[in-house]
Amino acid sequence: TLGPDGPTSGGYPLVGGMVRAADEVLSRLGPGAVRHWRSVTRAEAEDLYAEDQRQQARWIETVRQGLALRR
Predict the structure, then answer these.
(1) Pick from 18, 29, 50, 67: CA 20 to 30 A from residue 35's CA?
(2) Which residue has the higher pLDDT, 65 or 6?
């Protein structure tokens, strides 16, 4: 699997690209795991990315609040 920053495919057919929002999900899959892919439009990919950024911001804020309570 090549992400958007991956190397060129060396002339081989490129079946598709991966949206950034899938990075975390893909990184958690173990060897031999099966992942089903689907086509998305650019607008859908942008929406997925925006939602991923919102979730990360909420997670970071939760961690910061937890650390603040320890002080």
Answers:
(1) 50
(2) 65
